[in-house]
């Protein structure tokens, strides 16, 4: 087991990539705390993971919550060797229609929360020469990026810059950004399906998509690799492999969006 003896907090572990990462990290022998807002869904993560995983409520847009979750994780685990930051949200629609509150909530969740968590965690990570992993996105590698996700792309570009800034000031800690392609999860499930289908089809027409979506475990394996690495892994980028045959590619119509809603919520 590659993470025996490590004490890890996974934020955003109530669904999707954070949940899969927490399960893989626990499978590799680490002691794990999981955090998110939906404590009923955290209980499911705890039930599916090996060992004694502890669930902690936390809204990363709330500074007091960020301080408390680090205090509780350190007290429960007896120290902190690594933090995985998975919380992420997006708006979907034309850039000129994004309202002030949308910018604020996406940046608070995807970017500022990272720094609030680090403000509280850094003294503990400096003691252990620990690790900090964030989940970024391959959307920031496209130029120009896919349309209708401006808040998201801006927040993830800023996220990778923020992590570099932290690395510059805290060289004892290993910071990693894992930029992921489209993966089955609950991402975007709060949106109306009829609104999402033309947006996703537009991305497909412009050839931003790969014809497949990854399983969350594909990202979780890379999170484990970053945590277990001998040296500092600065950045990992993962895209889906293209389908074997062209006729097996997703058409990104209603059926594909439904598959994501069904399988992504498992
Ligand atoms: N799925 C993809 O295709 C894809 C691709 C590239 C990158 N990513 C990134 O992967 C990360 C995980 O997303 P996902 O795809 O797994 O989506 P997801 O299934 O919707 O999971 C999002 C997680 O973030 C948590 N979260 C959201 N707002 C929060 C807040 N204010 N405080 C604490 N936790 C919060 C959610 O928990 P609660 O709602 O319970 O708080 C949930 O556990 C995100 O950073 C996303 O940008 C996803």
Describe this structure in words.
With 266 residues, the protein is of the alpha/beta class. The chain has one domain: Rossmann fold (3-Layer(aba) Sandwich), CATH 3.40.50. It has eight helices and seven strands, in the order E-H-E-H-E-H-E-H-E-H-E-H-H-E-H. Strands 3-2-1-4-5-6-7 form a seven-stranded parallel beta sheet, with helices on both faces. Strand 1, helix 1 and strand 2 form a beta-alpha-beta unit. Helix 1 runs parallel beside helix 2 and helix 3 runs parallel beside helix 4. The radius of gyration is 18 Å and the shape is globular. The structure holds NADP nicotinamide-adenine-dinucleotide phosphate. The site of NADP nicotinamide-adenine-dinucleotide phosphate has 28 residues, from helix 1 and strand 5. The site of NADP nicotinamide-adenine-dinucleotide phosphate (NAP) has 28 residues, from helix 1 and strand 5.
